[in-house]
Amino acid sequence: MNNKFEVEFEKEFYMDYYDRQQFRLIDVIPKPICLNCPHCQVYSVMNVDSKVERFEKDIENGISFQDKNLLFDFICSCLQCNKTVFVQAQAHGNAVDPDYQVTDEPFYPGYQATDEPLKDEPLQEVSSGKILSIYPYRENITVASEVPDEYASDFREAVLVMPLSSTASVMLSRRILQNIIKKEFNIDKYQLEEAVKEFIKIPGIPSEITDTIDCIRKIGNFAAHPKTDNSGKVLAVEPDEAKWLIELLERLFDFKFIAPKRNKERENKLKAKLTPPNQPQAPSKLQAPSKLQAPNKPQAPNKPPTK
Asked: Does the pTM of the predicted model rise above 0.90?
């Protein structure tokens, strides 16, 4: 299940210099944190033992939203295994507009107020946040024993780094794909795009796998060679995209390494079950001797010589 972090905004209203009703944010209150415990792997609510707020609070002016970063450090304990977990999280400050005008009074002399109705509630009571990092990192990432170590090692690293950097995780996934195509399918191309085209031409590969391969290539190139939108802003790799690539690699592992080996083991087991056991050989008959040998007669004692 996905990690979950939410906050409640505590605010107050006041009248400004121009007798306009405004509000200020005076506190950000975290709600329960839900995540997979890195120790016992159980999805549960974390018990918050202590927290540190890494943003300034001004009693008179409220909390500033200039940088939009409302960072928290939590020391939690899992309700299942009672072990300690460190969590760094961020509240979405952009849910608050500090310049929002609550009433339709003019902002300044000469300002013409509109007849459009204004919102009664400029601030959401609850806002979703984002968990940035969890410590200890999850180290017991399960990779099937059929997957070669060189790919399994990069795969574990891609999963471990994903909460910290989606871009780094995607680039590792791209490297895994490139190495598998080169070493397992003997396609050695300088450009990954050309290698994927050759891979797709291989007969007998399901379309689900070829589509999977192409998605890994596209998102991987997006991470390795950043693109911009029409405004010139660099488009970031989303966490869901990094997670999706991990799932796609698991399908590729199953197709290339896991399923063939396990199917072969099942086939061998079935053959052994259906093969009749070896019939015991009949004991060989004793061959009768060609001639019966007479038992040895005892020799007569020597007679004394006659006179």
From this structure: no
